[in-house]
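Board work, copied verbatim: Type II toxin-antitoxin system RelE/ParE family toxin
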Amino acid sequence: MRAVVFTLHARGDLRRIMRFIARRSHSKALAEDFIAGVLARCYRMAARATEVGRPRPDIGPGYRSLPFGRYIIIHRYDPHRLVIVRVLSAYLNAEPTAIRAGDDDPDGA
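↓ predict structure ↓
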């Protein structure tokens, strides 16, 4: 199984999503469950032998996206890792350059 790596931007996205859901639902448990679901999806993606998600050449070579509820998981595959680049609202019309700028993988891959 590939290792799963979350960029700093992806980690920040998950924290913001958790705060948003907790505030809107008045339930920290609901927010934690949602984030646990996102993490579980990422680890299932890494465990698959084939790459999953829609190719996103508009963002850059190798980028893919996969919906999760009202969010989109932007990711890319390296030979031994799945890099989660961003987790963004599906309603957000983010510029591809802004998404690529979030690819701050500390290992430089």
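The mean pLDDT is 90.
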